[in-house]
């Protein structure tokens, strides 16, 4: 993470969020660099989130994971989804005018 920060010198920690699925690697790494973190619940800790039906349930899971790994994310999301893929424009033929 520190190396990435040297590559993006104009990026401020206050405007950066580390998104990851691993508390010992992604979340702890981001927190150690002073960055906000967001845990993706469908990653390697997905078994811990099975059966979560409310915000309260999620808070309990995050607290337990935090105690087990010594780090707790600032945010969490149930899954990461980029949205619909962009059209492949380079292989499309242009319409004749």
What's the topology here?
Layout: H1 2-7, E1 17-20, H2 23-32, E2 36-40, H3 46-49, H4 55-69, E3 75-77
Parallel strand pairs: 1-2, 2-3
Give structural attributes:
12% strand, three-stranded parallel β-sheet, 97 residues, Rossmann fold, alpha/beta, single chain
Description of the structure:
The protein has 97 residues and is an alpha/beta fold. Helices cover 36% and strands 12% of the residues. It has a three-stranded parallel β-sheet, covered by helices on one side. The longest helix has 15 residues, at 55-69. The radius of gyration is 18 Å and the shape is flat.
Question: Can you count the helices?
Answer: 4
Q: Span from first to last CA?
A: 51 Å
CATH architecture: 3-Layer(aba) Sandwich
Cα gyration radius (Å): 18 Å
Q: Give the biggest beta sheet.
A: 3 strands, parallel
CATH topology: Rossmann fold
Strand order of the largest sheet: 1-2-3
The first-level CATH class is given as Alpha Beta
Question: How much beta, percentage-wise?
Answer: 5-15%
- How many domains would you count in the coordinates? 1
Mean pLDDT: 87
Low-confidence stretches: none
Topology as a string of helices (H) and strands (E): HEHEHHE
Helix content: 25-40%
CATH superfamily: HAD superfamily/HAD-like
- Give the assembly state of these chains: single chain
């Amino acid at each position: 993470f520190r190396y990435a920060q040297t590559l993006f010198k104009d990026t401020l920690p206050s405007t950066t969020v580390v998104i990851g699925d691993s508390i010992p690697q992604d979340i702890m790494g981001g927190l150690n660099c002073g960055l906000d973190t967001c845990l993706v619940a469908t990653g390697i800790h997905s078994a811990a989130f099975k059966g979560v039906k409310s915000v309260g349930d999620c808070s309990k899971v995050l607290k337990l994971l935090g105690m087990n790994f010594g780090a707790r994310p600032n945010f969490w999301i149930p899954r990461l989804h980029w949205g619909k893929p962009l059209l492949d424009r380079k292989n499309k033929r242009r319409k004749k005018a």
